Amino acid sequence: MHRPQPTSKEYFFNENKIIVSKTDLKGKITYCNELFIQMSGYQEFELLGKPHNIVRHPKMPKIVFKLLWDTVQSGEEINAYVINLSKDGGFYWVFANVTPSFDKNGKITNYFSVRTKPKQEALTVIEPLYAELLRLEKNGGMEASKKALDKILKEKGMPYEEFVLSL
Predict the structure, then answer these.
(1) Is the Cβ–Cβ distance between 11 and 94 less than 8 Å?
(2) First-to-final CA distance of the chain
(3) Rounded mean pLDDT of 50-73?
(4) Strand-strand pairing, 19-23 and 29-32
(5) What pLDDT, on the 0 to 100 scale, is given for residue 2?
(6) Residue 16: pLDDT band by 50, 70, 90 thresholds?
(7) Which one, of 88, 87, 89, 66, lies nearest residue 78 by Cα?
(8) In Å, how far are 21, 65, 115, 123 from 15, measured between CA atoms?
(9) pTM tops 0.70, yes or no
């Protein structure tokens, strides 16, 4: 899959709107609402059946996605700040809530992601944090960024979920 070249063009959406998508257990998109289609710059047919990481921005630390996937695959929901890449190379920030769905036997069947407009004050904390985690990943792999994130959370005395909700 061809990845767009990132640009400095930032997109925004109204704080009263939400971006919604649903994926299968492998992370392939099975549903996306109109705002997701609009913000991503893709057409619906280009998104359905594709891995959700079609919108992953290279400025997004891998450790955050590992934490996200580990959490939802364990049956828990998670909130995270995410920078997404549009088809034209632009980007947009979201505050994502990712939740597993279960069948009547308690087995995970799919994942829902509901994204809202992030708080600007939170991004003043998240952007430099993600830049540092990404720098560490480039030099020491995901283990280096995990170690740094764990240290920050320990210093703050809170788990990741509480940290992002406190911003």
Answers:
(1) no
(2) 35
(3) 96
(4) antiparallel
(5) 74
(6) very high
(7) 66
(8) 17, 24, 10, 15
(9) yes
